[in-house]
Amino acid sequence: MRCPHCQSERTVRNGTTPLKNQPPRQRYLCRECGKRFNEQTNTPMARLRTPASMVSAALNVRTEGLGLRATGRSFGKCHRTINTAV
Description:
The chain is an alpha+beta fold. It folds into two domains: about 1-45, N-terminal domain of TfIIb, CATH 2.20.25; about 50-85, no CATH class. Helix content is about 30%, strand content about 25%. It has three helices and three strands; from the N terminus they run E-E-E-H-H-H. It has helices at about 50-65, 70-75, 80-85; strands at about 10-20, 20-30, 35-40. A three-stranded antiparallel sheet has the order 1-2-3, with no helix packed on it. A hairpin with a 5-residue loop joins strand 2 and strand 3 (about 35-40). It is elongated.
């Protein structure tokens, strides 16, 4: 796995991050720059705590034409949360 910060391939596995209602996420350490990262670093999903399956489902519902508030009600989330995730 390449480091998203310095593009080095000198990376090693460095534990896992426990997440609620999700499997743990593998962490990596770059031996070149010393920074830690996971496979979602520098992606649109980087800091989201919502499971990827729920984000995918919300995107599908939004592309079918359902509004933000209705999508929020459907998934039990605030419409502002849906707006920032989508």
